[in-house]
């Protein structure tokens, strides 16, 4: 009765956290402001993560990966995000792009595409949303038409993270327009496939180091065996994927918030007003206490959800995975927005300048409330699960 593994990370998890934190502080954090200022891809982060095998830890050992569990993956993303939100999208999006293949792909598809990701030779993005199909993803227009031993894709995907940098893309497309959501299928598309192109980089509020672009398909012909799962199962796979990967967005939010809290703690100890450190003022202490309480509550829910995700990936039926993954994503991202805003407030005028990292963290936190399902959609999902 004394063993509660679901409620505490193991010694190995905590050792992993220390390792990633040390790496992030040494190799990623020094470039974070420059990456944001120049809106450039964080190549230094990618190089450091690949060199240390931390860019896609979730890939199973059978496909050349580290075989890390979902909680370990969360910790990696969280610790990278503490240093740089843009850089944390390297491990996060590698998981997002590959989970459909892991869930529904053929053995041959897994062997062909997971190995290069595990070795750091390629990244893997996820293409679901379109200009007129965001929250209503089933309203997508991108088409895939069977032509002999190939599929031909036409359409455009919007808001695709790391587009143009990733070599591989999980793409959802309509294969039967008369079947609604059941007429959507999933495919692996390569950047080098003929007819694949990319729109200009979006000019964004935050996560400026991670390119967000359209992915455009013009008579893109791919082999028929690049379909993920059976025809018509793509939307089901997309939803199942998000049950696992919303948790990684929660992890990103936790890391950004923790980075802001840690910086604010150091600042209030040093900043003096009225003859003493502002950390001595009760009003400041109450702000810090609220930030820490909310952050730790979100962390515990996220870790709890990660454990459920791991069990589900192992084949166990986890009835409340959808609920807890939506809940941790919504809670952690809301907390991240609150904590980073309070960190800016604690730094006062300095917090509003680019000389200090909390304004970047505040901007980076905002997207966690939006992508992989807005928090309004998450609340709808949670309510539906409760009212089943």
Automatic annotation (TrEMBL):
**Matching Gene3D superfamilies, A to Z?**
Acyl-CoA dehydrogenase/oxidase, N-terminal domain, Butyryl-CoA Dehydrogenase, subunit A, domain 2, Butyryl-CoA Dehydrogenase, subunit A, domain 3
Cofactor(s) in the UniProt record? FAD
Q: Which InterPro entries match?
A: Acyl-CoA_DH_CS, Acyl-CoA_Oxase/DH_mid-dom, Acyl-CoA_Oxase/DH_mid-dom_sf, AcylCo_DH-like_C, AcylCo_DH/oxidase_C, AcylCoA_DH/ox_N, AcylCoA_DH/ox_N_sf, AcylCoA_DH/oxidase_NM_dom_sf
Q: List residues of the Acyl-CoA oxidase/dehydrogenase middle domain.
A: 126-219
Q: Which UniProt keywords apply?
A: FAD, Flavoprotein, Oxidoreductase
**Which residues fall in a coiled-coil region?**
none
Q: Where is the Acyl-CoA dehydrogenase/oxidase C-terminal domain?
A: 232-387
PROSITE patterns, A to Z: ACYL_COA_DH_1, ACYL_COA_DH_2
Domain Acyl-CoA dehydrogenase/oxidase N-terminal, by residue range, is 10-121
Q: Which Pfam families match?
A: Acyl-CoA_dh_1 (PF00441), Acyl-CoA_dh_M (PF02770), Acyl-CoA_dh_N (PF02771)
Q: Does the keyword Transcription regulation apply?
A: no
What PANTHER family does the annotation carry? ACYL-COA DEHYDROGENASE (PTHR43884), ISOVALERYL-COA DEHYDROGENASE, MITOCHONDRIAL-RELATED (PTHR43884:SF12)
Family (UniProt): Belongs to the acyl-CoA dehydrogenase family.
**What is the protein named?**
Acyl-CoA dehydrogenase family protein
């Amino acid at each position: 009765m004394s063993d509660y593994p679901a409620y505490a990370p193991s010694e190995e998890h905590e050792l992993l956290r220390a390792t990633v934190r040390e790496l992030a502080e040494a190799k990623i954090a020094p470039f974070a402001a420059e990456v944001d200022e120049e809106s450039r891809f964080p190549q230094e982060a990618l190089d450091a993560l690949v060199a240390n095998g931390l860019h896609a830890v979730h890939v199973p050992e059978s496909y050349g990966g580290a075989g890390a569990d979902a909680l370990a993956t969360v910790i990696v993303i969280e610790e990278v995000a503490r240093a740089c939100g843009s850089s944390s999208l390297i491990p996060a999006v590698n998981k997002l792009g590959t989970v459909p293949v892991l869930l529904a792909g053929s053995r041959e598809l897994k062997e062909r595409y997971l190995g290069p990701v595990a070795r750091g030779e390629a990244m893997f993005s996820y293409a679901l949303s379109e200009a007129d199909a965001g929250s209503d993803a089933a309203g997508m227009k991108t088409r895939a038409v069977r032509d002999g031993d190939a599929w031909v894709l036409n359409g455009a995907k919007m808001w695709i993270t790391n587009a143009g940098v990733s070599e591989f893309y999980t793409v959802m497309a309509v294969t039967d327009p008369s079947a609604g959501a059941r007429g959507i299928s999933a495919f692996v598309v390569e950047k080098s496939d003929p007819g694949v192109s990319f729109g200009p980089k979006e000019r964004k509020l935050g996560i400026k180091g991670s390119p967000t672009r359209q992915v455009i398909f013009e008579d893109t012909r791919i082999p028929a065996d690049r379909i993920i799962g059976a025809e018509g199962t793509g939307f089901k796979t997309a939803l199942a994927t998000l049950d696992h990967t919303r948790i990684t967005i929660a992890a990103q939010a936790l890391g950004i918030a923790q980075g802001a809290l840690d910086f604010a703690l150091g600042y209030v100890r040093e900043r003096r007003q009225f003859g003493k450190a502002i950390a001595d003022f009760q009003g400041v202490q109450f702000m810090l206490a609220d930030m820490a309480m909310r952050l730790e509550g979100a962390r515990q829910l996220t870790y709890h959800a990660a454990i459920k995700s791991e069990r589900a990936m192992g084949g166990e039926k986890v009835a409340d995975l959808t609920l807890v993954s939506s809940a941790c994503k919504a809670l952690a991202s809301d907390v991240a927005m609150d904590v980073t805003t309070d960190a800016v407030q604690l730094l006062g005028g300095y917090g509003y300048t680019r000389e200090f990292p909390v304004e970047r963290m505040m901007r980076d936190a905002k997207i966690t409330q939006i992508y992989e399902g807005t928090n309004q959609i998450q609340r709808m999902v949670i309510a539906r699960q409760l009212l089943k």
